[in-house]
Amino acid sequence: MENARISGWQFFLLSLNFIVGTAFFVRPGSIIAVSKQDGWIVPLIAGIFAVLIACLWLTLASRNPGLSIVQICTKVAGKYFGGFIALLYIWFFIQLAGWVTRNLGDFMKTILMPRTPISVFHLMFLIVVCYAVIKGVETIARTIEFLAPLVVLIVVVIYLFTLSEWKWERFEPMFQVSTWQLIKDSLPVIGFPYMEAVTLMMLVPYVKSRVKTGLLLGITVATLLISGIVFVTIGVLGVTRTSHFAYPLYIIVQELQIAEFIEHVESTIVIVWLIWIFIKLCISYHCAVTGICQLFRVSDRTWIAIPLVLFISGIAILTHENIVDNIAVDTRYIFQYTSLYGIVLPVLLLFLTWIRRFRKGESGGSA
Amino acid sequence: MSGFIICFLIGLGGSLVYLLRRKKSVKEISLFVTFSLLGFIVWLSIFLGYKVSPDRFFGWIIDSIGL
Amino acid sequence: MKGQPIIQHGKRFLIVIIFILSFGLTGCWDLVEVNRLAIVNFVGLDRNPVDGKFTVYYQVINPTGVAAQKTSGIKSPIYTYRIEANTSTDIANKIFDIIPRQPFFDHYSAMIVSERTARAGMKEILEFMEKQRDRRATVTLFVTDDPLSDIMKTYIPLERLPGHAVGSINESESMQSGRAGKQSRVKDLVENMESAAFTVLPFVRVSGKVMPNTDRYEEIDANQGNIVLQGGAVFKQDRMVGELTLDEMPWFYLLNGKIGVFNQSLILDKAHVGVQATRTSVRKQLTMSSGRPILKINIESKLQIVENTQGEKLTVQNLAKIKKQYNRQISDKAYEFYEKAKRNQWDLLGIEQQIMLKRGKQWKDAKKDKEIWHQTKLDLTVKCTVDMVGITIDPY
């Protein structure tokens, strides 16, 4: 395992950007399509659940200090069963990287470069990310520390300009959906992006201090950002048009005109999204590689990371055929699927940890 | 497709020579080969048209469990 | 350090990566060469409601014609291509039959449809436009009842690109006179497609005879063969249902609170006073009183006097008279406009849509009754202040 250290602030940025990452662009459309004017409440509900789930992860981590989730698996569940769970997690990280890569490809192909083969985007991006992963988590954390303020600034400035199209009438009628329905609608949102944040439990051992604050604050701020952008989308673009678009946020910026002559600023928002995808992909890729290294006790990441480029780019192609397919899987299965990794397995591991400690205490007492 | 296979074999061969010359541990080399082959199989299945979506697969499992 | 090999071979590794990445640079596929583009500036669309056939006109910019005005040689800044097709998809095919370059739609500035197309419903066309990544929904949409070929095949004076010209006319009218509105873009029409609210788009015609030759640039009479704003086309959802005259247009924008500057000529004891409302704030509130909706509209204007033909001095008392007359005239005309719209079955104030958005028990029955907006009582309050009187105070 690498001897990297990351600070609490860096871990906060990692969590924030990891969660906001792809969700910022992919989520608003689907949320508004389902919950209409009340869409902005959905991320808030999902965020509250996410904080509770994150507390579960943090408990698990504090019971097994200094260990990543893959190490916890092998430690508490034994070599074979634990190894199997660890493999499941590694597969999840790889699949996550595949999803993120495919989100990038879909976006670039639909919006910007329709004639370029989708795999080209995937491979180009993965090679760069692979390099970052080989360089290690400290490098990634520092990159994020450098890029995050820039990204947030661009996003805030651009969406402030769009407020000239703002209409409060677009929020009418408000509070039409019942609370129960809203909770139901927020399930996929809990699955993606919040439950995916279990990936961050791979990075916990590297964090010097303030793990809890970093993660929980990261989730909170990400929630506010996502809810905020849904709010802005409703106010600026309106429910009718938003629910028909694949990437409403892009449309908002595409239709932005600043002072009659500054137009076509959409490329800036594409850059922002590329940065976010880069961050999320770096983290999930890194966690997959580290997971493999820890499971098989290999010290050098390089030769694990390189073949994964091929594997992940393949998974990215296989994962879905088009956005429609993606949305269908997302609304139906994502919560159930990710809760396996986000809730079921952590609870199981926590339970096994307690049993272990109980037995240890017992044997310690009898000796 | 043949281009892909040739490129893959050259890449794999080259990397193996490099790894052996640097006297890497057997575990590392075998992991490297395993993941390379996994990636190769995935891409081969894409080229041959046997596309199995992992998402759909897990969806099918969730359906059959009845969640 | 565990990552030793990479540190040692870092530079070589980097060079290899850069080398590999340069192969993937996406320019190979999505290459855009400016000299190979046909930059479309103005699009005209007509669909025959009987057989559903499309006739599309593309006005493509001729860069040498736009730039080199002083040199002799090619003078035409634009060329108009006509394409006939059965479906929107078919157009995409046939476009290459005649245009030798790659059509580039990212920057077109206006679009015009024929009246019969608009009256037959534009859903299909709008759907197609919204789906394309390179056509933006912020272009202004115009309607005409002149043959499209006339509009698309005339050179106009001063502004060399007709697409720009009509866009600018709409823009300045919306800011200076209230006879057109900024909310006449494709996106505004699309946004109202699923609601009961009405959209008004500018209506244009060709004045005089068509000028299809560049010799027209030497012709002094600018009225000949020019594109002129004529009024507004009223749309419900995707369908044109009627026409507003230019004089009625400000009332639509005023009552919907979207007006900028507009002018009024007030009659005062045979003389008239011209005022310009420089800033108007409009507040609307829909309430229900004994089963009948009441729409309260509060209009508050800041006036500037631009003309005064009265024989008396401009005193505080006289100003009060002017203000009173303004308030009365605005509310009279607004009522008149509202009644006319009602007679035509046009819910131009968007009352039905507002009722749909209301919550609460008292609105429950109203929502079921599609015709209830007819019974809505308009309750207008107009206030104004005169804050500018112009350079002179008293008339001579």
TrEMBL record, chain B:
<keyword id="KW-0812">Transmembrane</keyword>
<keyword id="KW-0472">Membrane</keyword>
<protein>
    <recommendedName>
        <fullName>LPXTG cell wall anchor domain-containing protein</fullName>
    </recommendedName>
</protein>
<feature type="transmembrane region" description="Helical">
    <location>
        <begin position="29"/>
        <end position="50"/>
    </location>
</feature>
<keyword id="KW-1133">Transmembrane helix</keyword>
UniProtKB/TrEMBL annotation, chain C:
<keyword id="KW-0732">Signal</keyword>
<dbReference type="Pfam" id="PF25198">
    <property type="entry name" value="Spore_GerAC_N"/>
</dbReference>
<keyword id="KW-1133">Transmembrane helix</keyword>
<dbReference type="Pfam" id="PF05504">
    <property type="entry name" value="Spore_GerAC"/>
</dbReference>
<feature type="domain" description="Spore germination protein N-terminal">
    <location>
        <begin position="31"/>
        <end position="205"/>
    </location>
</feature>
<protein>
    <submittedName>
        <fullName>Ger(X)C family spore germination protein</fullName>
    </submittedName>
</protein>
<dbReference type="InterPro" id="IPR008844">
    <property type="entry name" value="Spore_GerAC-like"/>
</dbReference>
<dbReference type="InterPro" id="IPR038501">
    <property type="entry name" value="Spore_GerAC_C_sf"/>
</dbReference>
<keyword id="KW-0449">Lipoprotein</keyword>
<dbReference type="InterPro" id="IPR046953">
    <property type="entry name" value="Spore_GerAC-like_C"/>
</dbReference>
<comment type="similarity">
    <text>Belongs to the GerABKC lipoprotein family.</text>
</comment>
<dbReference type="GO" id="GO:0009847">
    <property type="term" value="P:spore germination"/>
</dbReference>
<keyword id="KW-0472">Membrane</keyword>
<keyword id="KW-0564">Palmitate</keyword>
<keyword id="KW-0309">Germination</keyword>
<dbReference type="InterPro" id="IPR057336">
    <property type="entry name" value="GerAC_N"/>
</dbReference>
<dbReference type="GO" id="GO:0016020">
    <property type="term" value="C:membrane"/>
</dbReference>
<feature type="transmembrane region" description="Helical">
    <location>
        <begin position="12"/>
        <end position="32"/>
    </location>
</feature>
<feature type="domain" description="Spore germination GerAC-like C-terminal">
    <location>
        <begin position="230"/>
        <end position="388"/>
    </location>
</feature>
<keyword id="KW-0812">Transmembrane</keyword>
